[in-house]
Amino acid sequence: MAVPFTTVGRTTVRWCGSQITTTGAPAWFVVNCCAATVPASTTGAKFIVPLPQIKTGDIITAFGLLGQIESAGNTVTVDVDLRGAATAAGDFVDASISTMTQISVTADTAVDSTQDKTGLSTTALQTTQYYLVVTVTTNASTDFDLRGVSVVVTEQ
């Protein structure tokens, strides 16, 4: 389920969506229509979130997550990697574009635009598909709910 663009400036839009797929063992997480949950005591659960709304020429200026951490005093860590898979003659070239500073908390925490990775200036190419890889590790009595992602672009 994708949420429509929301204007936050004259030429800047924030796209929010929750089109989530997963990698790894199915026991790592539970995905329903509204969220993907990583249960307690899980190491390295990965979510793949495609970003099909990014158009050729858009300038990606920020990205982040929408979700919630329940920590019960134990540590939960969340890493986010903005990646692009580009068409090439020999094979696809998949590369990291930017990573978000790791969210590492020991208290219940809302994950929202306050943790966004900002200051980017990446122009979207026609030959590249963009996506986010979200990697989560939880400890005992903790969990993480991913509700969606947020990507800020300047439309060209």
Account of the protein in words:
- 0% of the residues lie in helices and 57% in strands.
- By secondary structure, it is mainly β.
- It has a single domain, classed as Sandwich (Jelly Rolls).
- The chain is elongated and about 45 Å long.
Concise overview:
With 156 residues, the protein is mainly β. The protein contains no helices and 13 strands. Helices cover 0% and strands 57% of the residues.
Note the topology.
Layout: E1 2-7, E2 12-17, E3 21-23, E4 30-31, E5 36-38, E6 45-50, E7 59-70, E8 76-86, E9 93-105, E10 109-111, E11 122-123, E12 128-137, E13 143-154
Antiparallel strand pairs: 1-2, 2-13, 3-6, 4-5, 5-13, 6-12, 7-10, 7-11, 7-13, 8-9, 8-12
Considering the chains and any ligands shown, give keywords for the structure:
single chain; 156 residues; Jelly Rolls; eight-stranded antiparallel beta sheet
